[in-house]
Each structure stands twice: as structure tokens, then as C-alpha cells.
Design brief:
By secondary structure, the chain is of the alpha/beta class. Strands 3, 12, 13, 14, 15, 16, 17, 18 and 19 form a 9-stranded mixed sheet that branches. An 8-stranded parallel β-barrel has the order 4-5-6-7-8-9-10-11, surrounded by 4 helices. Strands 1-2 form a two-stranded antiparallel ribbon. Strand 4, helix 3 and strand 5 form a beta-alpha-beta unit. It is globular.
Amino acid sequence: MSTLKIGNVCVTDLTKNFQTPLYVYDQEKIEAIIDLFTESFQSSQFKTKILYASKAFQAIEMINLVAEKSWGLDIVSGGELYAALQSKIAVDKIYFHGNNKTYQELDFAFQSRIKHIVCDNYMELIEISSLANLHQQKMNISLRLNVGVEAHTHEYIVTSHIDSKFGFAFESEECRNCLNLINENEFLKLEGFHSHIGSQIFDMKAFYAAIDKLIVYLKEFPDPLTLNIGGGFGIAYSQQDNPLKIETVLKSLIEYVEITLKQHELKIAELIIEPGRSIVGEAGCTLYTVGYQKVTPGRKYYFVDGGMTDNLRPSLYQARYTCDIANRMDEEKTEKVTVAGKCCESGDILIQEALLPPAKLGDVLVIYTTGAYGYSMSNQYNRHVIPGVVFVKDGQVKEVIRRQTFADLIQQEVIGGQTFGQLVSQKVTQGQASAQEIRHKANQGSDFRSYITYEVIENEC
């Protein structure tokens, strides 16, 4: 039997050491695509900058990778900002996005001394202005514009049609109010305009249409501004996807912006893009253990030990993937099967129709191209643990995020005024259980109430 290797590491070794489900990233692939983006997104007429859209997959180790390549970072929440601050990324390279940033998140941004906020609406800008005055701190503001261009992707992914929840029209009163407020506040500076027209875009015409509108808007401003055209670069999830080569896409974007600026006799300070999925999507895969099988009148099922808790996209977007039995790569694919998860939902289907070899209980199934929005959208439905994440390269394995234990699922549950985690820590401190014993029992799925006397739990509940 032939076994799949990733980064020159056998997947069966990975499953033995880290259990399944397991997210696996080929670090060399990530680094190669980062380098390709960097080399291809260059202009002799204006500055260029690439921000990694970390919502696709945010881990401190991943942020460190892009930081080492001198990229910036696109974050969309206080939690993502907190994680970014623990990494090697320079604070002045963090751009804070989001349509409903809370006052606490914005205050955290000012306290963290970040320099760039992408503002979604006028109410948000009022909060930013107030905080800038409070902290006596300058902030560069990019306004997120809805340019009315709709990319031809799944309707739930499209973000720039006129009634989208993101951004506002340049011609709107809301935009005028934002521009006026920025001019009135000595701490705020209009950095430029941002637009993101969708995801999984395979047609350059949509990008060109958005660029046309953004550049026309620049005519109202005396000084060169920054244009951020977002991301959305498509990748291949299945044979039905036919994305353009990324170097072709990037060079075409640069050329189109250069030509359009020349036609309008305008200049820009900088052109920014924000790739996320296209950086990590194809570099990641998920390993599962094959469980039971079932034959119904209409189909045959292979059940795996994960599902919509580690990959929500098939249920949410009807996303399509490809797969293999990773420890039977050379065997003939004679079985037409549905790969289903173990969640208590009829919609927990990872792949509707796959052609695979006959599988056995305990085989390893790999689903490809799960590097984007797999871990990011993972959840604990049915009390399933969040899988671990590893990077592999040149035969070496680096554990990036440790798999949760059953105990992690209830760490913050309050029992008699204390969290479960606090009660366990007390037992460790009192010598009634060692941390090693606790972790072992958590991994084995034991009842953790044995470390907190049953009588106390009963009395306090």
C-alpha cells in the first residue's frame, strides 16, 4: 500500500502522534505562494503592499511566517488583534477591519498603538474620532466603499452588491459625513479607500470594474491616496474550479491600475491587496479516521471522526472538496461514496460524491484544500474538541496549535462560583491529581468530576 506524504512526512505518522481530525499545512507551499505574491505584485509607478487576511487561518506561527516576509496583517476583531500582538508582526503593519467593531475593540486598538483602521460606517468613525481625542493619538483611516460591483461567486460570499452589510457608497451622505469628520479631527487622516468585491473570483472583469470606480473617486482629492482592492483570489477546490494563475492575476491588476491612472492623469500613494484563502487554502488539508460504513438504497456512506465542526463550509456554502484514502493511494477507486461527519445533523456531509478505494475501519481519509476557513470556522457543536494544527516541512513536524481535550470544553463553566478550570487547578495544587494525570484522562475522555469530589459538585450545584 502506498501512503500519502506531506512535506516528506507520512500522514499515518501524523495521525499516530496527533490524533484525528488533524489540520496539516505544508509550510513550504505557504512560503512559496507568499514569495510568488511578493514577486508578482510590484510596480515602478507606485508603492505596493500585501496584507495577509488572517481570518482565513490565524495562528501565531502563521502570522510569524508573513511577518518574516515583510507583509502586513488584516485583522477583523479584538481577538485577532490580541493574537497578532503576541506574534512578530510590527504593530504599524496591522490593519483593523470589520463592520461592527465595538468601543472596547477600538479602544484596545488605540492602546495597542496600531496605525491603520478600515472604517465601515459613520457611527464607527464617531467612536474612532472620540477615542483619537481621548488618547491624543493619530490614526490613518481608510473608508470601506461599496462600489456596486458583484463578483460571480456564491451569494453568501459576495460582499459588494449595493445592499451588502459591508461599506457604503461613495456618493452617499454617510460617506460625505465621514469625510467631513476626518477633516475636522486633527488626529484623523484619510489614508484612502478600501473595496472587497467577493471571494473565489475567477473573472478579472470584476476587479477591473471596481478599480475603474475607485480611481474616478480620487479626482476629488488633491493628494495621492491609497487604494486597497481587497482579496478574493480564487483557488481550486475541485476539478470544476479553474482559477487563473496568481502571477497572471497580480501582474494584470498592476498593469490595469497603471494604465487607468495614466488615463485620468492621477497618482496613488500605494496599492494594497489582502489575500487570505489564496495563501493557505491549497497548502492545508485535514486528516480523518474512517469509522463505520453504511449502505442505503440510494448511496453508500463512509463516516469519519470529524465533520461540520472542523469544516463548516460544505454545510454553510455547499463547498466542494476532493479526498483520498491516504494509506491506500495506489489502490483502485471503485467505490462511489458520500463522506459524512459524526455530528447530529443530517446536513453534516463533507463530500456528497467521492470515488474511493474500498475502505476499512481505521483507514486515514484526507480532504484536500482545507487550509482556509477550516480551523478558523471550527466549533464545538456536540461537544467535539477543536483539532490540532501542525506544519510540516522537509520531514520535520511542528505542532502549531494543540488539540483540545474534553476538559478544555468545560474550562469556563462555573460550578459554585468557580470555573471548572480553577477547581481542577486547586486539586493539582493540593496534590490530589497531577497535571499529567489530568491531561491523560482528558485525552482518554474520562469523567473529570473524579478530580473534584462528587459531593462538592452536588452541594454547590
